Amino acid sequence: MKRLILILIICCIVACNTLGISEEDPILGGWYVFINASDLPSSPSIDAVAHAIMVVTFEENGNITFGEVDYGKDGSIAINEPTSIGKWERNGTEYSSSIVTVGKDKMFFEGDLLYVMLFNNSTYVGLRKMEVFDPYTNIYRK
Predict the structure, then answer these.
(1) DSSP secondary-structure letter at 9?
(2) Domains of the chain: total
């Protein structure tokens, strides 16, 4: 009986590896940062903005997309539609990104944040993982 269970376990492991069934990479999906512009130093590009939301998506094919919504102090909204900004890759437990105008750099997890160098100033941005909306369980009706 023990041999049968051991053989079944080995067959399941081989089948999962053969079919490509594996745990999803934790970097995949949408990540965001919410910015309260009043917390930032004054600059011409930020002075008209009240809040901003940046969304970065890491796709299975290695693409990185970036989109942003800026909420102006005057009630205006500026939308930067999602655009491909580069590629990401994983080597073992190490992650790296290659982003246009920024170059190639490492990415790393610290707690529940993913740190990525998004801008060309050697500053990493800590992104939070977005949860996928499920219309069957994420809606409450009274």
Answers:
(1) H
(2) 1
Query: Would 142 be classed as within a structural domain?
Result: no
pTM of the predicted model, to two decimals? 0.75
71 falls within a domain:
yes
3-state secondary structure of 106: strand
CATH number of the domain to which 115 belongs:
2.40.128
> What CA–CA distance (Å, rounded) separates 55 from 139?
23
Using alpha carbons, select from 101, 26, 36 the residue that is nearest to residue 66: 101
Cα 66 from Cα 56, distance rounded (Å): 5
Residue 15 has pLDDT above 60, yes or no: no
96's tokens: 């790296």
Q: What is 23-81 written as a DSSP string?
A: PPPTT-EEEEEEEEGGGSPP-TTTTTEEEEEEEEEE-TTSEEEEEEEEEETTS-EEEEE
Helix or strand (DSSP H, E) at 2: helix 2-19
Give the tens place of pLDDT for each residue, 57-114.
999 999 999 999 999 889 999 999 999 999 999 999 999 999 998 999 999 999 999 9
Residue linked to tokens 């990415």 = 107
